[in-house]
Write a structure and sequence with these properties.
Chain lengths: 79, 659
Amino acid sequence: MTLENLRPGQTGTVLALRLEGALRRRLRDLGLVEGVRLRCLGRSPLGDPSAYLICGAAIALRKTDSRRIEVEVEPWNAP
Amino acid sequence: MERTVALAGNPNVGKSTLFNRLTGLRQHTGNWTGKTVSTAEGRCGAYRLVDLPGTYSLLPHSEEERVARDYLLRGEAEAVVVVCDACCLERNLNLVLQCRELCQRVLVCVNLLDEAERRGIRVDCAALSRGLGLPVVGVTAREKGSRQRLLAALDALWGTPAPARRSPPYGEGLETALQHMIPLAEGERLPARWLCLRLLAGESLPASAALQRAAEAERAALGLTPSEVEDLLSAALSAEATRLSALSVTGEEQAYGRRDARLDRVFTGKIWAFPVMLLLLLGICYLSIRGANLPSEWLSVGFDKLETLLRRGFAALSAPPWLEGLLLDGAYQSLAAVVSVMLPPMAIFFPLFTLLEDAGFLPRVAYNLDRPFQCCHACGKQSLCMLMGLGCNAVGVTGCRIIDSKRERLLAILTNSITPCNGRFPLLIALLTMFFAAEGSAVLPAVLLSLVLVGSVLLTFAATALLSKTLLRGAPTPFVLELPPYRKPQVGKVLLRSLLDRTLFVLGRAAAVAAPAGALLWCLSSFRPGGESLLLRLAVLLDGPGRFFGLDGAILLAFLLGLPANETVLPILLMIYRAAGGLEDAAGLGEIHTLLLQQGWTGVTALCTVIFTVLHWPCSTTLLTVKKETDSWKWTALAALVPTVMGLILCAAVAALGQ
């Protein structure tokens, strides 16, 4: 599944970044690389963008961008 | 000898605060990404410190990163201090590693150690220093000894000969390619290894043709595309950062904690986000109106007393009447009107705004409001520029640099003046109070002012959508916004700083324009060829078009003459109406109301004037800033046309309906 479908509170592991160019590098700079764990913190009041906990920082991403990031959701929620 | 040292670091790591503490310079520090959009300089002992914009990396994806990297590439700085956040060191190490590749003398400064400790994170600076091969110094945000420790570490940098630049292992293939290329790069101005790496990653940098060809050949031999090379490089940097943070950090790295999550459930939650934003807006409007009345009166009484003294002085020196008219009736009175009307609301607005900024609330506004901007194919960070514009549009236009994409930045610049700046508040408040909230408290005017502001936000959406469907078409670019941890604002410092930096700065600029404008006005009103002053003639000339838009000639003329500073519109208007020459000082809203009614004002006139106050050409300072930022007269003209045309259409519609 993609990051877009990660629900608030769920934790996932990044499998692949299907992005090119500036965004790919920007996300890498922020620590969003293959194998990293992240958690969906919540959605903004109008439903988009959503905030994710990546490497200890809260980062907001739009759906159009997050649907290009493959994640595997963890079967249990992080404590 | 003075040495130049650059200060680099990720956004939100307290870099600017540290810079201020080192230099004593009051550079404005805010708790959101992209605060420093150009470099700031200060002195500290034997050092010249240069504060670079906050960046996540030295690969130039954005304006800030370009500024930071170009500065380091110029080689002006003899050393770089990389400021890191102890709460999420791993991510910060990415920048440290990139600096270590590019620069010879690097000092790592791990900031916010106290904050980290509170979250159960410990950083072993000695272990980190061994792992990196660089000196590391740990500091806290507020403790006094930090400054001394940092300076001592900086002094120690010069004790030894400059160490070699170091980079993590990039794997056999790339390392072999580098070995082939580096001998070719020895004569280049840029560091050889770093230059070869960047060329392999496909970046276009000045280098000899032989080296450029070698980069392509090596890449072909490896069978990699430039972006694959870039991936390999950043993967190696990430791996190195992970290894180093495992060596030196205990506890789970988390800058964004439980408290932040709880606060965000309110400030960005489905139910509370918008009510809270509206309440804050209302609160700011209420306090600006309520708190400003009394000090405004005091100031105006004070200015009157001073004027009496000055007049006596002029009389004693037996100065010619025209000089007294030009200086006192013209320059002085307009200056006094602007200062006494503007200073109090500004002295209330700016500190409140800075408090919200310091606390970390502003990026949440961008987060909450991103969806409509997305629909307009614009960037959510535009709302931050609008918030800055609420203080001063020129500042808002400069602030648009935080938007990476050129198209989206232009959208934000062209629509910025639709957000009424603080200089327009007094006029709005006066009109709303006189015509729509006649009696009683400050609550109703505050509600009305908030409504006007909400209306200006909606108009901004409309203008942005229109522009992005016509002149500035294009797909939205990716949007990445960091929501920094909430911080407790340092109230005392905030008050002092915002008063010094912002209030006095904006006021000074307005005053500098108001005095000569007042003198000019005096000339216009005193020069009477054929019995009638030029001012009145102009007003009569403009009366026809003015009436069509629900205004009158005097109002239109006041806005035209108020081009240098919006604050002067009301005083000019009153002066035209009185037509006596000289701005008479604020005589209280009641009297002004009577005067306006005598001139035939109705509710429709007042409403049209309110609309035109929000939607007309930006002041000259803002226009010059737009020219500077866009480097184009075409966009500057458009920045004036867009709000003006919108304003005229709306005014004409209201006038037509009102009749």
